[in-house]
Please model this.
Amino acid sequence: MLSNAPSNLFHSPIYQKAMEIIILSRSISTYLNQDLNGLLPNGAEDDHIYFSGDIVQQSVSLAPEIEKAEQERYTEKKHKHIASIKRLTSLLNKNVKRLENCNSNGKDYLPLLRSELQKFKKLQHTWMLTL
Model:
């Protein structure tokens, strides 16, 4: 997190939702990894384990991009961070969709993450209009 971020940013709905998505994606990834870290019968790794790591990495990147967009003075640079947030949200949705096909009971929690991403997307639209 940026040290000179305005304190009201941490109370903004989009920032709070990004933080919730981080916690949720980490929890789901941990749960999935318990089932996916073993080898398949043919001795290969389950490729889904990488997608579970990707959702964590992508969700962790959301909040810093929100901070950077909020702090940026120039419109062009704000749009760069907004584009990054849109890309991360899209990648998160794609990886959640991929994980829905994995062989783990943890996939039962993926609809919850998908729902939170939809809420984030709505907040993102409103937030972009305020920048």
